[in-house]
Every structure is written in structure tokens, then in C-alpha cells.
Amino acid sequence: MGEKKKKIVKTIKVDVDKCNGCRACEVACSAFHAAPKHSSNNPARSRIRVIREPLKDIYVPVYAGEYTPAECAGRDKYTIDGKEYEECAFCRASCPSRDIFKEPDSGLPLKCDMCESDPTLEKPSCVQWCLVDALTYEEREEEVEEGQEQEELETGLESLVDKYGMEKIMDTVARMSASKKD
Amino acid sequence: MRYAETGFNLEVDLTRGNIERVETDPRDTELYLGGLGTNAKILWDRVPPEVEPFSPDNLLIFSAGLLCGTPATGCNRTIVSTISPQTLLMAFSMMGGFWAPELKYAGYDRVILRGKSPGLVYLWINNDKVEIRDASHLRGKGTVETAELIRQELKEPNAQVAAIGLAGENRVYFASIEQGRSSASRAGIGAVMGDKGVKAIAVRGTKDINLARPAEFMALCNEVLKYIKFRNENPIPGVMPILAGLGSPQEMKVHDEKWHTENFMWGNSRVRRKDFWNDEVAKQWAQTLDSMRTRLISCFNCPMTCGATISPPGLPTYMMKCFSKLTYTMAAFSDLEFGLGIAQSATEHGVDAFSAPQVMAFALELYENGILTDDDFPGMPSDNEGRFYWLLDRIVRREGIGDVLANGTYWAAKQIGKGAEAYAHNNIKKHEQLPLKLSMLNPIYFLMYATGEKMNITQIEGQFPQAPFPTREEREAFVKDWFQVPDEKFKQYFLDWEPRGEKSMPYYPTVEMCCDIVDWQEKMHYIDDALGMCSGLSSFPLKPPYHIHNYPKFISSGTGIDMDEAKLTQAAKRYRTLVRAVNIRRGMRRKDDKPPENHWKKRFPELEKELLDTYYKFKGWNNQGIPTKESLHELGLDYVFEDFEKRGIYSDNEGTPSSETLAEEKI
Of A41, B167, B282, B372, which cross-links B376 as Cys (Cβ 3.0–4.6 Å)? Predict the structure, then answer.
């Protein structure tokens, strides 16, 4: 086991009860990530989307997470406070079963990066634009095991080996490190 | 590249089923901005006065404001313009919600409908793909219901749908166009949509809207957000709560309705109930609202939560905003539970929440006074609430007496005769007004009511306090951070304005000051309506975040057009004059510029004449309210002058009688 290490975890707290469904977060997000910055906006490119079903009183701001090449085998439903939610309402994945979290023209997956930029923003754009406080920002400090990263790396590599075979992965790593030296 | 706007219109010929995407002239954006301004230009150019509201040649224009779809907070309004079947003048009703930004993201600034579809259809705009689709299976469906069915059928949960209900399909003169939490209700534009055979327009867009100078524009947006926060934390002292903050009057939030229920009129805008509000009513109404209101909600990109989702027991959920909360309740002398319940049906049928309750109360007043009899109301229940539901149903189906009432109080009274005209007492330019009757003439409101072609006082007034503050100290405190004024003189007008004595109403503010004040109020509304900004963040409340000093910067950095206060003021004046020109060409004259006879008990005919004379001059209009050659020339509207000359409009000093034929009969 490795040493303990302190890590800052950036956290956006989502209070669905406070969401007014206005989608300002989508506007702010897509504007911030436009190139050049703020030169355009388009909610379809946003890395946060409000899953809205006004007549059922469902409002869930959800952030783009990892890309997944396959959709879930089943899709469950959750009832919370008498309201029935699709499981997907809480899911961050850019996945084949839905069109959110994909660039509208290229189809490439989108992922929330907490508006990392230079200079660093005080809080992500979506939070700044959410005046009703459905989105608030917090930085938590967590202690993590040094060794954990190593473990994660191994798990990731193993799945790649499963998929492509050891030889192909070795070749790719070799080629990548060769091109880095140039 | 075009900035803030897309530069394209969608032209739809419903008769032939033809759809075209047409590039617009950027010079028109400089002159008329967009939204209302551009709509006025299109109606002037393409709808001559001979065209009747229900003619295939009438246009129905859905225009997004110039800045809709940009990050400008609260800029989400669709401005719908056509010739109204009720007023026979230009109608420009508006709606917030989510439709206008979606249209921009789909790549269009406006949709222009012409002709008539042979069968009931809906329009599906999905980026570059635009289709006219059969809607026969949606006939008779409610507006909210229709929107849901269309989204399901298209498998597009993110489509924004503007739809009409039974009232629009049956060309009720006060039919609305509903869109989720918002509606464009005034002057019967839903009837024109129904006449054209269009049940709904669904839109989905996934394209970019560009900004000319992003850093500058975003800095302005951030200032606005900061100021909204400041205003939310610092309500204006000394005015009633609904006027102290920003947004539309916060009717969905407040429980205390003492002011509305005791100052506004009940029934057919007749009865004032000075001691209505008591603890028991307060408790009961609070309970009703709390039990039915599921959430406070907003329009696109706005933090103001002026609307609410309402779930009346046993009825489908719908969304509501503002004063429709009380219009049905008060027209029927009932309670809030009834009001929120019948508003559900009214929203699905798609009727205007000011006109519809007043028309029903008018019918019952005629019945009580023997002008209408039992024969006119076969099968009507005996209780008041039941009667309202019964009447609403007859009206939206145009059945029996409903067919007459569906034309609004002005035309219905004419058809009924037997002295019914005296009961249609609350109209301006044939259009039902807010149920308000007051004691002493307010000269500022006199001018707004008389000349406001926007037809609804809440969309004309704003910015300047409605009444003087009692003490000089309070007034001084108010003007201290009043930077929104276009000129310092407005502060002085307000500082000197006293509740009684020499400097009080009706002779103070003076006639000249009233002209300045009304012109400022009107200008800000007209700018909002071109940009697509909600008046709740701009022209309506006191000390709003958008004003004449930051608007030019928003427009320049957003669109890339050079804009300053003078140029913006001139543009607003240009298309405001064009709205009047459209109406003048349709017969509107000085005789039409008047508030209801009984709006105030104490009237001052000489002062009122002086007010109107002076204001006309101030606006560059002649004594009949017709824009003069010189003022048209100054605005670059020589083409209006030429048309007026050709039609002999100036030589006809008495004014041609405005049209007095029912729109129905003309086709």
C-alpha cells in the first residue's frame, strides 16, 4: 500500500428541488466551451443538460461523464417522492441510446471538465449562471492512497488487453513512446 | 457571418404547401432591429389595408427577438404579429417560454405563414428539415395535450411546440397560442392561426448562435446577473410587494391578494369589494395555492421564476403565470380553487385570460338584465361556477350564444343589440382591458391607455413609479441609485411629484412632463419587443437590469452593428411609427385613441384634449394622430408618406370611419 495523499475533489451539488428548468446552465456551458471562448452558444453542445418533463415535475440537471460504446442491457425506473424517473435521467454517460452529450455535427462525445481553464474560474460557468442555486460548487479534500492510481491503471489496461490482445497494446505503447521522443 | 441573428426567414405558403428559406437583408436589421420592428416592416410591405384578418393574404409572423438565443438573460420572447380579427388592427402579442431560442438554434429568425392550408396541419421545423404534417388526428385536442402528442409522435422530447386549442380552431376572437408555460394571448392571434389551418408549430434546433464581440457581450451579461441578484436582495421600499422586485408580477409566489381583490373589479369589471380580504379568505386561498402549486418555473435562460406548475385535484397539470391566477376567480365572484381549476380548461382550449372571463361575466350581466334570456342559455347550470364552465365550453365550440360571445364583448354587443353595447364598457379599440376602475384621472395613464397600440396596459406601463411617494425623503432615497433614467430630468419630475397639493395629479406631472414619461415608457417596451427581451427584466419593473444605457452595448457587441443611445432611440421610434402607420392605413384615428369612458370617475376633458394634442405633436403626428411628412422623412419612412398621399389619408381630416364589419362576414 502506498502513502496517503491529499486530493481536491471538485463537486457540483445539484438540488433538483430548486431547479426552475430555465437551462441557463446549458447556455453558459456551451458558450464557455465554444472556440474562441464565448463566441457562440448552442445548448445541444452543452456538457450539462436539464432532463425536463415539466408536466411530471421532473427537472434533473445532469453532467456529461464518460463515453460508453454500448448501451445498458436493461433500463430501470426509479420512483422518488411519487415521481417516476428513467434511470437515464441520472446517468452521465455519452451513450448510443440517447443523443445528449454528443457534438451535434460530429457525434463525438462530450464530457464536463469543470471549466478547467487558465486563469482558473472561481466556480464552473453553469454554477455562476444558476441564480436559483440548484447548482452550487464545493471543493472537498479527500485522502487517497497513492497506490490507488496504480490499481486503476492496471484495471484499465487489463480491459484494453482483453479487448485488443496483449500484442497490440504493447505495439501501441511502443509506437507512442517512440513518437514522443521525436 | 451574421451575429446574434441567423439571417434567415422561413416562408411558408400553406395554400400550396411550399416552404422556402430566405436570406434577409442585414440593412433591415440596422433599421428595424428584429422581432416587432421587422414584423411591422413586413406587414407594412406585404399586407395592404384591404386584406382582412381571415383572408389568405393576411400573414401570421412568429418572430424571435434579435437577441433571443444569445446568452442575454431573459431574452426568450416570440413576437407574433398579424392583423387581429377583433381590433382589425395590427396585433403583436408575445410569449416567453422556450420557442424563440429553439427557432434561432434551428437556424431561423422568424416564420412567416401565408395562405390557408386545405386541411388541419402542423409545421415541424427540425434544423434544415421543415415539413408540413397532417394534424387531423389533433383536431379538438387541448394545447398542452397537443404539444405532448406531437413530441411523442416525432420522438423528439426536446421539441418546443406552440399550439392552438379548440378556440383557435374555431376562430374565437380571443383565442391564444399556447406554448408550455407561456402564451401569446391578446387580440385573437390564435384565431388567425386556426383560420390558416395550422394546429401547431414544433421546433428543434441544434445549431450555434454567434456573437460579434463575445468578451464584451459576456461582461454585460455578468453585470446584468449581478444586478438581478442585487435587486432580488434589495426590493424597492414603499411600493406594494408585486412592484418591489423584478420579473412579471410574482403572482405565483404571493399569497396576500388583498390589493388585487380589493382594488380590481369583480364580475364584468363592475364591482369593487373593499372589504373582501380577511383572515379566513387568506387562509383558504393560501391552502389552495400551496396544495396545487408543484413548482415555480422560469422561461428560457431566466432566473425569475414567474410561472408555476399547477395540478388541480382530478385535473391534468398545466402551467400558469401572472394575473390569470385571479381573472376567472374575480369575474365569477368565486374563490381561488375555482379560478385555478377553470384556468386548466381555458389553457387547454387556448383563450386569453383577460378577455375570456370578462366575456363570460358580460354574458351573465346581460342575462341578469333581461337582454339575454333563458332561450339563449338552454341547459345552463344555475350556480355561478357551473355557468362559467358551461359558457367557456359554448364559446370555444361556437355553439348557440357561444358563437356570438366568441367575437368578444364589442362585437357580441353589436350583434345582440337591445342596449347590450352599454355592457361592453371596458374596451379600448374593441379590445377588453384589465378590470380596473379608478377615481381620479392619472394623466400619464391617460396617454398610455389612449395611444398604446400594444393594447394591454401591463405591456405599456413601467419604469416610472405608478404613484408619487408620500415624503420627499422617500423620493430622494428612490432617485439616489436610479441610473436607468434616460435623462436626469426624470428624477426631478419624480422628486417634485406630491400626493396632494399644487404638484399633484391631474395637473402634475405637467402635460410636457407626461409626454416625456410616456415616451420613455413606450420606448423601452418597443425596444424589448424587437430584441425579444422579457419586459419583466426591462420595461415593466422599477429599476430593471436592462435599460437605455446598456442596451446599445448589448446590440453592438452581440450583432456587430454600431449602436448608441441616439441610434437605438431613433430605430425604436422608426418601427413604433410604422406600427401606427399600419393602423392608420387601416382607419385608426384620434377617435380611437381613448380609454374606456368609465375608467376614471373624475375626468378632465380639457386637460385630456391638451394631453393628446401635445403628445401627438411630441411624437410627430398631426391632430388626427397621423405621422406627418416631416417626421416620416426624419425616420427614413418616406415610403409611408408616399403611400398615405396616394391613399388620400392626409386630406381626409375627419378620418375614414374605421372598419365596422365583423371579420367573419368579410370572407
Answer: B372
